[in-house]
Design a protein that fits this description.
Blueprint lengths: L1 E6 L24 H7 L6 E6 L13 E5 L5 H12 L5 E4 L1 H5 L1 H5 L4 E4 L6 H9 L6 E3 L27 E2 L2 E2 L9 H6 L4 E2 L2 H9 L5 E4 L8 H11 L5 E6 L7 H10 L1 E9 L16 H14 L3 E8 L7 H13 L3 E6 L7 H8 L25 H15 L2 H11 L5 H28 L1
Parallel strand pairs: 1-2, 1-3, 3-4, 4-5, 5-6, 7-10, 10-11, 11-12, 12-13, 13-14
Antiparallel strand pairs: 8-9
Helix pairs in contact: 7-8, 8-9, 10-11, 11-13
């Protein structure tokens, strides 16, 4: 049996993203399709295709095609699926967008997987081989995370990515952010993989760098402390997603540093107290609390990439100036600056839809630099001008140089190279998008 697994491109067939090319410093392969490949028996001949970086050969002999969808690449995925189905090759769709929009996805596939692969893909393969492929395979999303198969990293072209070593120790996030797909689609339960199994997988990796691709590092603290402690002898360097409050516990910070953590992606989201992770912090002094968290992380040689979201209700124009001031004063090392996106399946999408404020139904438009709904306090034009102003101000060459100079006090050359790539990559995307924005105005 010949199986083709495809990551659909977010750029191809998407006019909103023709200007954009993700820098290598941002790139590492997702675990979804690599896990699907690992669940296949040895008799299955697998080819992995990254549509962003190579052309799809529709004429190549293939028995079954699988695609993993996000909202942003769903239309491209449907186009790919149509091309294969026109050639009488069965197509299976899965991924976050399929969970959120199952009925839509079903129109473009022979079968869909709703949820996780571990308790669905083996059954799907058995049914396919016996000629009894079902239309829908639905996961319970409660599968035990012990004895997970190792992702098929051997299928990946490592030259395209900053690293192919992505690891998952837990699944799920306990928070219920209105805009986040994870809790909305999979619930707020967190499942833990046995620490020893995580360590053994990390030992098996080539090189000494990996990304811990968990949803949120600032939870299940005793579990993570145990993991960090057992990472210390391995002398690896790694990065992860985390909430700001991971910095509240000094023991955790010490273990993070000793275990080789050199960077965290922190979702600050908004300086307004009513938005973001309200269960963690509701203080009006968010900026001060966040600054202290960054200071503590830096004290333990951990770089901080801050993520901000604009477009929450009741934010006025001053939010951009205040956030820029915070970003400078806190001395974060890089920033992801996004527009609030009401992804399908989230409470945010449902609320805005009920309020009649969704202005865009084309999933190609659901990108973090596009506004898809009507704001309460600003015109779209004013909002977008302020948004691009802030991104540009944060990513001037002098500011990037200053950030790298500060980071050099705590970072090795390789880490500085990654930070430089992130900052310059975002700067280039801003310039390219600004030309598109100006030409459309």
């Amino acid at each position: 049996m010949k199986l083709k697994l495809i990551y659909p491109s977010s750029r191809k067939a998407n006019p909103e993203l023709q200007w954009w090319k993700q820098p290598k410093a941002h790139r590492y392969p997702g675990l979804g399709l690599l896990t699907v490949a690992a669940l296949c028996p040895p008799t299955v001949e697998i080819k992995l295709v990254d549509d962003d970086h190579e052309e799809i050969n529709y004429e190549e002999d293939t028995d079954l095609v699988g695609l993993s969808l996000l909202t942003i690449n769903s239309q491209r995925a449907y186009e790919i699926a149509r091309n294969f189905r026109d050639r009488r090759v069965p197509v299976v769709l899965g991924g976050m967008h399929v969970v959120a929009c199952s009925e839509e996805a079903l129109k473009h596939a022979d079968s869909i997987v709703v949820g996780e692969a571990e308790d669905t893909w083996p059954e799907l393969l058995r049914d396919f081989n016996s000629g009894k492929l079902k239309r829908i395979y639905k996961s319970s999303c409660s599968s035990d995370l012990s004895n997970m198969p190792l992702p098929r990293r051997d299928l990946v072209d490592k030259r395209r990515y900053i690293t192919i070593n992505t690891i998952q120790a837990t699944r799920g996030c306990p928070f219920d952010c209105e805009f986040c797909s994870m809790a909305a689609l999979f619930g707020q339960k967190t499942r833990l993989r046995p620490v020893e199994e995580v360590i053994e997988e990390i030992k098996s990796l080539e090189g000494n760098i990996f990304v811990l691709n968990d949803d949120n590092l600032a939870q299940k603290s005793e579990y993570y402390k145990n993991l960090f402690y057992k990472l210390i002898p391995l002398k690896k360097r790694w990065a992860a997603n985390a909430s700001w409050n991971i910095a509240e516990d000094e023991e955790t910070l010490v273990l993070l540093e000793k275990s080789g953590c050199r960077g965290v992606f922190v979702g600050f989201e908004s300086l307004e107290p009513q938005y973001g992770v309200k269960k963690i912090i509701s203080s009006k002094d968010r900026a001060l609390i966040y600054k202290e968290a960054v200071k503590k992380l830096h004290a333990h040689r951990i770089n901080v990439i801050g993520a901000f979201i604009f477009g929450f209700d009741n934010e006025d124009e001053s939010i951009f100036e205040r956030t820029l001031e915070f970003a400078f004063d806190s001395q974060i090392d890089a920033a992801q600056i996004n527009i609030l996106t009401p992804y399908p399946g989230t409470p945010l999408y449902r609320r805005l839809d009920e309020e009649g404020r969704i202005t865009e139904r084309n999933w190609n438009k659901y990108i973090a630099s596009n506004l898809c709904f009507k704001l309460k306090t600003m015109s779209e034009r004013t909002f977008l001008e302020k948004y691009h102003w802030m991104k540009s101000k944060f990513h001037t060459f002098p500011r990037i140089a200053l950030r790298l100079l500060r980071a050099s006090r705590i970072s090795a050359p390789y880490e500085l190279w990654v930070l430089l790539g992130i900052n310059l990559g975002i700067r280039k995307s801003i310039k390219d998008y600004s030309r598109e924005f100006e030409s459309s105005s």
